[in-house]
Amino acid sequence: MSEMQIDWAGLSPMIIVFGAAFLGLALEAAVPKRRRLPIQVSLAVAALAAAFIAVVLNKGKSATAFALGESAIGSVSLDGPGLFLQGTIAILALVAVLLLAEQRTTTGGDFVSEAAVVADSRADIAQRRDPGATEVFPLALFAIGGMMMFVVAGDLLTMFVALEMLSLPLYLLCGLAKRRRLISQEAALKYFLLGAFSSAFFVYGMAMLYGFAGTIDLAGINEAGVSSNEPRVLLYIGVGMIAVALLFKAAAVPFHMWTPDVYTGAPTPVTALMAGCVKVAAFGGLLRVFNVGLESSAWDWHAILMIIAIATMLGGAIFAVTQRNIKRLLAYSSIANAGYLLIGVIALGDAVGQTMFYLAAYGFTVIAAFAVVSLVRDGDDEATDLSRWAGLGKNSPGTAGIFTVLMLALAGIPFTSGFTAKFSLFSAGLEAGEVGLVVVGVVSSAILAFPYLRVVVLLWLNEPAPDAPTVNLPSPMAGTVVAAGVMATVVLGVAPGYLLDIVDKASIFLGS
Amino acid sequence: MNELPLLSALVAVPLIGAIIVASVRREQADVAKWTALGFSGAVAVITAVVALNFDYGSGAAWLQLTESYTWIGAWDLNLSWGVDGIALLLVVLTAGLTPIAILAAWRDLDSVQRSVPTFFALILALEAAMLATFLASNVLLFYFFFEAMLVPMYFLIGSYGTGTRRQYAAVKFFLYSLLGGLLMLVAVIGLWVTNGGVFDWQTLVAAEPMEAGGLQNWLFLGFFIAFAIKAPFFPFHTWLPDAGGAAPAAIAALLVGVMDKIGTFAILRYAIPLFPDATQTFAPWIIAMSVIGVIYAALVAIGQTDLKRLVAYTSIAHFGFIGVGIFAFTQSSATGAVLYMFNHGLATGLLFIVVGMLALRRGSSSIADYGGAGKTLPLLAGIFLFAGLASLSLPGTAPFISEFLVLLGTFSVNEPVAVVATLGIILAAAYVLWMYQRTMQGTRNPELDDVPAMKRDLTLREKALVAPLVIAIIGFGFYPQPLIDTIEPAVGNTLQFVQDAPVEAPAAGETNE
User: Fewest CB within 10 A of the end CB: N or C in chain B?
Assistant: First the structure.
């Protein structure tokens, strides 16, 4: 029996994040309430920064993390795309965690520890005086660790564990809002129920694929797509089920129903985490499953995935037009963007790098956008209704200017990352021969520009209401989030060369 | 390569100016105005230097004064600049019209609570983007500025425009142009994929022409529709009356006078040389569209009740002439079309600016609010009439030469089109003269006497800013030869792709680099 070999260095980013999450849990029990916040925040930030550095140190690697003697065990594949996406998740999460820590805009932060306590009861008033619910940081770290595991998972079982790992803490985080608790808890329940369904789909699909291929290893399934003698219907059902679960997380039409409600109901920092990081993880998983596991059966799923991509692009854009709430608008825009990203998935190997570039660019922009949303407040509450944003440019030109840049980036105007990302993704799509998809993507972008533009109109061209919401001056925390997001948006728009180089080098999956 | 990066400077100077003006404090409106005027003046000076360094000989390279700096290597996106005769004329137009527009808008913001520095910074940003589109010699670089230009113009219309429909107009303008731009983006990417990753214009033009047929037709349409929206050609024109009607008059002068020319310029620079076969396939349709545009827009213009919308419609009619001139593919009609682009910028720019002066005095640009206004404003009325007559191509004014060349060239290959288009001149006389009659002559509108400003004729500033345009219109009306000499080599270079004679390998790749 040969020795088990483990690539500890390769696993170190995940170990750091999970370790910090457990440490954070222990600190919750050990440290007095008043001192927890700075400790938890610095722990989370340090862990994510260390994880990012660990990912960078692993660069260039293309091997499995576990091996039995000579034969590799494919449960964790450390390859270019996996590492790049891990790094992206770490850096985006680092930014998003700072938003979780923002306390100046509302005393005690956006979270309460016991959301189920009746609002305004004595217990509630007591917990509101507390300096915030610090358990969100270990919870977020668990979710982030799950995401980092999801993008390197090389077999379906590891993938499933990672999926649960990233989902369960998120369900909880969605329900911990201090304000508007009912819709927050409704969002959490909706997300949890539908998420549980999609997990069940995943397990069922995994069983089918196992029946077809005799293995849950992605590379093995790919081989079986050519060589297996089992009935092919098993493959179809399996692919369909797995795709449902993954597309649910990616928020593709028709599995998107939860997105607007959850994005709106969840506390805004959590929404930012979902829109930025979970999207990266979900598409990381999709890219890996389709590129490594299902490439050989591309003809079987190509048409149906195309229909889904078209429905997602058009559906997201058209529904976004009628939205009156900024968070819902961003939710539908995130759906439409999932559609564009699906072009990258469908284009397979040619578009992996470009899809990853899009994910990174979009992640920064959308996190900054949600950070700005969390700053515009009516008294203690966020002013998410768009009519309340009218004339913001007059009272707070700085914030309105930043949000305008972000909107223009989402609309894909040149000199922003939105344009460079769309350009590279669409060109990869055309190169792969997906002319129809790219044309639909362009039409959808044109439709989607309208809601973004309407926000810009509201900001600058309308008169503010007399009781217009105020923009709270952010603490350095949220300030850093906005600054980092806007800087990334502009830098990736003007000088994307460096990152394009990286994604180009990191676009080869192990075993594909 | 030249010793001085003149063309880079043309783009960089207004851009730097925009940043500086934008950072001026809101209270210091005068500082912002003078800084903006200074920067636009500097651009005009650099343009003069460029014009002096330009080789007007017929044996010169297609693109001159070329520069190139790598930007994003992976996409073959370089900061490549170069100028030919057509671009040179339009650069001169831009650099000349912008300071005049800044002067014309000098007092527009006195009575409204809007940031003055931002307004002038946006004008400079717009100038930079427009110059960049004329100077770019890289398809993707052109696209960058073609799209980015929408942002300053959008704010200029939406934030600083007049009337209740300015937001609607700004959004319509933006979405219309963006849709065109995105269709072009698909074609740009398609072009890139089919030719193996080249965006450099000189390389593309020097390469073997693309195979005729389906793909080339689609790519041509992607480019052409974007340009037709920008120009705008009938039936893609509906945004212009709204945008022109809502924009401040000085901005409308830039919008119609310069920005719309980017559409026709790009047809000559990109659509024809890159897709010659498709151009010929679609030419009859485009000519038909253009002729309909000439007649239709003129008829609609007659019925307008708002001065700015009326002028916007006259421009659509004029763009019809330009379209006919380009797609008739004769040397004289195409030269006339390019000359028309320049002269139309002068005449319509002047007309918009004069309308703006009227509207600022009266507080309205509705024709019904005037009547007999010329009695108290003799000089302004005179300039108004002059601009109107120039715009209807009266002999002796510059636009006459260009319209004549277009019709002459078209007549030699396609008589019916030339005859129908000529009808447009008669209609032009109708709308211009009737507009003048209803506003300046006839019974005086008694309400005008209650408006003290309607008794104040041209101020010194206003005289100073209309004078160069009037001189240019008369001067080039009598002596257009320098302009024609500038245009002809470039027009010849473009037309060699579509003329029936067997096309030899074009001499486009040779530059003085």
Answer: N
